[in-house]
Specification:
By secondary structure, the protein is of the alpha/beta class. The protein is built from nine helices and eight strands.
């Protein structure tokens, strides 16, 4: 792979082409650069190359890295969040992609109300059915959204999924279509404190298919930073 700057440029071009196929402008797609195991210097290079949102999988790693990043950037939590890490997560991240249970949402609500703030979250749905993945089942997702929407201190901004890990990204399409359909159901329910602003789906191997199926937020690491050591 080339430099991070070259990779970001190529990635944005691919996003624009995929968005055009879906009849949308490329500017509609939020690119989250996933910086798991990457250095603060690599993050800074990505930001200088046009990245404005960085996603981290682990709270502890983000807390160690963020103070070393000396350029302005927004941080998203994209990995599984444990309830005992919620307080620290809320101090750093502006959006949590991975709310997958009422128990986790209740912990977020407690810390948010104590801090007198609103926390933006996405509800994670396991559309692949793989037991190794976190997320509410598609059948339970609408009820989970309804329950979390009643908690103080939380604003639901959309849904998130991780597609099945398959060699051909076209085969992942049903996962993304299912999340898009769930998003339409959530929107139709018109619940308070719920705004279907984002469908966060698509990673390095399948983001183009995800965009074709309605994603407007993709989480990409390898295509920016290269393969992890």
């Amino acid at each position: 792979m080339g430099s991070i700057a070259d990779n970001v440029k190529r990635l944005k071009e691919r996003i624009a082409v995929a968005a055009e196929r879906a009849g949308r402008p490329g500017d509609d797609i939020v690119l989250v650069a996933v910086s798991k195991t990457r250095t603060a210097q690599e993050v800074e290079e990505a930001v200088r190359s046009g990245i404005s949102v960085v996603g981290e999988n682990r709270v502890q790693e983000a807390w160690a890295k963020a103070p070393q990043v000396r350029v302005p950037v927004r941080w998203h939590m994209v990995g599984h969040l444990q309830t005992n890490k919620v307080r620290r997560a809320l101090e750093l991240f502006e959006l949590i992609h991975s709310v997958d249970s009422l128990r986790l949402a209740e912990a977020i609500s407690r810390h948010a109300t104590n801090a007198k703030r609103q926390v933006d979250v996405l509800i994670q749905v396991n559309t692949s059915g793989e037991p190794s993945k976190f997320g509410a089942s598609p059948e339970a997702a609408l009820d989970l959204v309804a329950a979390i929407s009643k908690l103080p201190g939380i604003e639901i901004k959309g849904l998130m999924t991780i597609g099945a890990f398959l060699p051909n990204p076209v085969d992942v399409r049903p996962c993304f279509k299912q999340l898009r359909d769930l998003g339409e159901q959530v929107k139709a329910a018109a619940m308070a404190n719920v705004e279907m602003k984002y469908l966060s789906m698509g990673m390095t191997g399948d983001f183009e298919v995800a965009i074709e199926e309605g994603s407007n937020m993709v989480r990409v690491g390898t295509a920016i930073f290269g393969i992890r050591a």
